[in-house]
Amino acid sequence: MSGRSMTRLNRRSMLARSVTGVAGSLASLGFMHLLSQDALAATESKGVLDQLHFPAHAKRVIYLFMSGGPSQLDLFDHKPLLNQKNGEDLPESVRMGQRLTGMSGNQSRLPLVGSPFKFSQQGPSGAWISELLPWTSKIAGELCFIRSVHTEHINHDPAITFCQTGHHLAGRPSIGAWLSYGLGSANENLPTFVVLISKDRIDQPLYSRLWGNGFLPSMHQGVQFRNAGDPVLYLHNPPGVSSRSRRSMLDRLAELEEMRFVEEGDPEIKARLAQYEMAYRMQTSVPEVMDLAGESTETLELYGEDVKTPGTFAANCLLARRMAERNVRFIQLYHPGWDHHGGLPGRIKQLTKDVDQGCYALITDLKRRGLLDDTLVIWGGEFGRTNYCQGKITPGDFGRDHHPRCFTVWMAGAGIKPGFVYGSTDDFGYSVAENPVDVHDLQATIMERLGIDHERLTYRHQGRDYRLTDVSGKVIRDVIT
To answer: Which of 15, 110, 180, 257 is in Cβ range 3.0-4.6 Å of 192 for a Cys bridge?
Structure first.
């Protein structure tokens, strides 16, 4: 037997081929019975959960991920003390030996730097919001601000990976993949998990593994929709191939793959077939969902001028609403560019201009259409920024380093308390002072809103059970109505 042939044989195949006649048939049938029913069910449109663990308040999630780490101190966490002590050294009694990144760890001093932007209290909660976010201020009554989120990870790649997969090392399934695995699809013609990335703001790579399936069946990975050319590669048939001939080819392929599945019992065969079928249906459904021509002038004006440019955050927010209407389960928007080690005052103005009206429009649009009640919207990055300056403070210019000890995330919809502020940081904005929230707590809360007990949705891989929240995480009950 050649080496190539050996690599194609899995242990199910070896068992089936090691016996003959009736004994072989019985062995194959017996082994098929031993296949993981969860793995097989997860290759169908339904998820592995026969019934939800809790009543579901959310049918879908829109996750607005601000990649790079937006400065909470210049957006949501108002700290007048920093302005009073601007230029003074960060007291050791506040830092308490907290590790620094290599980008500011060699500084001879860590000068505190206050925000140059004005803050005002908005909404029934009196949430402090920066002047940089006038549109967001208008929907403060719909938002729940969690100002006490923290993480262990101080560099981008492990921190983003942790937020998206529940673990800082690559290889675990992303949160959207877990939801696809557990709940399955709520529509027939679009992927369960879609990813949109803002154009022109890429200052750090966003790897496809951040929306990958990890060790789950491959059909649960996120599908990235591009903002130029075909939204999905190979969306159209090659020249000379009609839709009818493609349908016939898929039917014959399904027959062959079914025979192979009976022989080998590999669940990935079913996953591939499901992906082929979805790709066929997407040839019609994707162009339809991406076409904004049917949107009213009022709606387009709500999202602002940027909505007319494909790939902008505003355009992606409108697409997210269209996908929510069509019951896409998990819609992930990435808006990179928030890594402001220098030039923060000017750069954050541009980034907030990018996202402010889009966030307002998305929440407003969902509410108008009755979708906010069962859509969970999340806004946040992988960590926050320091209260001290990276490098030197100069008139009108400074930077902030990575800060995992505390940052702000907001949530809205799906029974999350509107107009509410949870958690707080100390007067220096350096550490959590009240109601700490770990990233796993956020993930557990997201799953609870969808009716899932995060401790009970597991997948056995390499001899142990895995879950999104690993070995920790608790639902943040205080932010739920």
So the answer is: 180
